[in-house]
Amino acid sequence: MKKLFKSYGIALVIVAIYAFVKLPVLRLDFTSGFTTLILFFVLAGILDMMLDRGENTSKMAKNNFLIAALLLIVIIIIPFFVTSPIFRAGSYRNLLGKVEESVFTEDVSPVSVDKIRIVDKDMAMKLGDKKLGEIPAIGSISKVGEYSIQSVKGELYWVAPLVHRDIIKWLTNLDGTNGYIMVSATNPQDVRLVQNLDGKQIKIVYQEEAYFLQDLHRHIYLSGVVNYGLTEFTFEIDDNGRPYWVVSLYEHAIGYGGANAVGTAIVDAQTGEVKVYSIEDTPSWVDRIQPESFVVQQIKDWGLYVNGFLNSVISEEGVLLPSEGTSLVYGKDGKSYWYTGITSSGGDESTVGFMLVDSRTKEAKLYMQTGATETAAMSTAEGKVQEKNYQATFPVMYNILGKPTYVLGLKDKAGLVKMIGFVSVEDYNIIGMGESKQEAYKNYKEALESEGNDITISQNEDLENIQGTVSRINQDVKGGNTTYYIMLKENNKLIFTATSKISAEIPLTEIGDKVDIYYDKTNSNIISISEFDNKNIGQKEETSDNNSSKKDTTADEKSVENNDNNKTKDTK
Q: Could you tell me whether strands 491-498 and 526-534 are parallel, antiparallel, or unpaired per DSSP bridges?
């Protein structure tokens, strides 16, 4: 009995250390728990043999090895039958849930031009690194972590925490790193290093780059979340700017496979407080619960096993697959959706439709609308400016003028966005390019109209309007392009800017002219004009015509009068 306690006790200590490092999930649909048990019984058997003074292996050691062997068979044989798509193809197809076919314009609200994002993740990383480099004292001990896009009070930002550079920097800064970076997804000039909140310094203590008890995964595990898989460690801030880690909790819905998110663990990045929520109870400021990898795999299984497993590997009749690449798009309601195109088996540059999956609830909707893939749209945009060697960013899909539209940026070698492209999903030959979103939008609208498309300007896309008298107008030439600056008597705090591409009337505008200006709603006092109308230009022409007509009439009347007088003289 003493030998039993000694062998099991030592084995338990070793396994506890192993569990502290590996963090196995303790539930029956995960093999990591069985692996831990196998290790325990193997160690116990070895220790029994070492402690046994006899020449032959003891019965207890044999029993431990037998239990370990049986457990090994369990995690090798059973998962094959209860998990393999050969036997469970239907379960894999249904894991995504009910997929409803819907109408794009009914579900996806239009977006105003100023809300369209042009800063991608790579550009956000460059801008964030540049911001951090402005403060050498922080940049020398910290680096910028992984960026994630999210909606903060209705505005889109790329947000990333400052994290430890290495274990030495962690040891010398156990109180945490100093804040986080926010980069606007719509305005590359809006880059913030947030270090204070409510008068207190922000300290990111718990993070994936920390060690031992400050390691984020380990901290959640030791807080009692041992019976769920943990994935997608996303840094998010609430609407007050307080930093949190949002971690998706998942289980296996099909034997030992079919990973499926069931809730979240939200960790206060500063205090370490852990709260576990179901999907329904997760706070509203959390943008996504469903991991991108899970959603993409479930869409793939939904389309692949439409007619069973054998069809998926032989004839592939009716098989549908997600296109290459996924993006997170935001609706007017603030909800976020995973977007991917849907192609037929063997499809190349065309899609048979696309799918939007709610990133919180996993509600999936399919839009059977043929069109171009994201990569085809990128190639088209790059081809329009091939002499500049610009590289297209991965597009984001929006509802523009009632049409599903890819919006992408075109970057130079330095990684800076130089142009914006709007590409029709239905026909990637319809494209609008411009050096600003407003210019690209205008050109895209003209391209749609020239191809005979019926466009829809929704009330959600209505522009702000101001009418007034020009008090100042001037121009500035940058890089060979002329930009006009206009101020109105009615509001001398606003400066309106535009090029002649917006309207040919702008270069002809003078002080004192009555103008009608349309623009996207913004908090800035420097505003890009979307549409422009000079009321005086048409009126001047009309007035001139009227005056000319009056002069001609008067001349005719005088001529008649003179003729009459002459006739009277002759008579006399």
A: parallel
